[in-house]
Amino acid sequence: MLSRNRKKPSYYKTLKVVAILSVIISLIALFSIIIFVFANGSAYITLNFLFGPYSENNPTIYPAIVGTLELILVCLLIATPIGIFTAIFLVEYMSSESKLIRIIKITIETLAGIPSIVYGLFGYLIFVVNFGWGYSLFGGGITLSIMILPVIVRSTEESLMSVPNELREGSYALGTGKVKTIFKVVLPCASSGVVASLILAVGRVLSESAVLILTIGMVVNKVPENIMSAGTSLALDIYYFGSYGHPNESAAAAVVLLLLILSINLIAYFVGNLLKKGKNFNEN
């Protein structure tokens, strides 16, 4: 009879130690970056730095805050419906064995792997040059929305696939149509995953700089008049301040960017929990 307490191979312990060390190294690297940025930049964050008028002797990030929020708004308005409806089409209306599905998924994976500078070059040639818009937040927002589409599609697709088929079948058995089942049953169950996909997309928008240099320019000294104006973002301000002799302001802008990303993630966490609680309440 085989012993239940079979001795594990020695390399299992080695792998466990390596895994623990990897986690420790990752956490040390993460907190080192955060502590370094906060130590160098937090002292320079003032109301004037956040909201004051820009000048050579008084560099501020108010234009970047406005530009960043406008870019996020444009990206989400364009990419969210396209990404979510694409994922619904792939999961709910197409067979996973279809050749068309395979082609679409390969295309999405290819889009996800394209370097951001290539998206920036595309946006520059199409919107800045061919369309004649010049540097504009709208052109940059459209370019970024194309870039984040694979993130939204893949994450939403995984969320929809995680919804049990029994829920769909139960809805159909009650005489509910497919469209109503998708929007009343499937999407509410996958809502937390959809929200997570949007947060991932916003995080990439906040951290992007290569695309924006080629599409919105880098006008750091004035607030954009409208979305067809050139502008800047927090990521571009970090690059600008660091390149043109304002290291302290660069670190302060990085602190603001980290706090903004943290705030968005916390909001997403609480919204996801509320959606889960609402789903559980409806099921009960």
What order do the helices and strands come in, and which of them pair?
Layout: H1 10-41, H2 47-51, H3 62-93, H4 99-113, H5 116-130, H6 137-161, H7 165-173, H8 178-189, H9 191-207, H10 210-215, H11 234-243, H12 247-283
What's this model, at a glance?
This protein has about 280 residues and is an all-alpha fold. About 75% of the residues lie in helices and about 0% in strands. The chain is built from twelve helices and no strands.
Descriptive account of the structure:
The chain is an all-alpha fold and 284 residues long. The protein has 2 domains: 11-43; 47-283, Orthogonal Bundle (MetI-like fold), CATH 1.10.3720. Helices cover 76% and strands 0% of the residues. The chain has helices at residues 10-41, 47-51, 62-93, 99-113, 116-130, 137-161, 165-173, 178-189, 191-207, 210-215, 234-243, 247-283. The mean pLDDT is 86.
CATH fold title of the largest domain:
MetI-like fold
Total DSSP E strands = 0
CATH architecture of the largest domain: Orthogonal Bundle
Beta-strand content: under 5%
Q: What is the end-to-end distance?
A: 48 Å
Largest sheet: none
Poorly predicted spans:
none
Radius of gyration: 23 Å
CATH H-level superfamily title of the largest domain? MetI-like
- Decide which structural class fits the backbone: mainly alpha
Question: How many domain units?
Answer: 2
Mean residue pLDDT: 86
Shape: globular
Portion in helices: over 70%
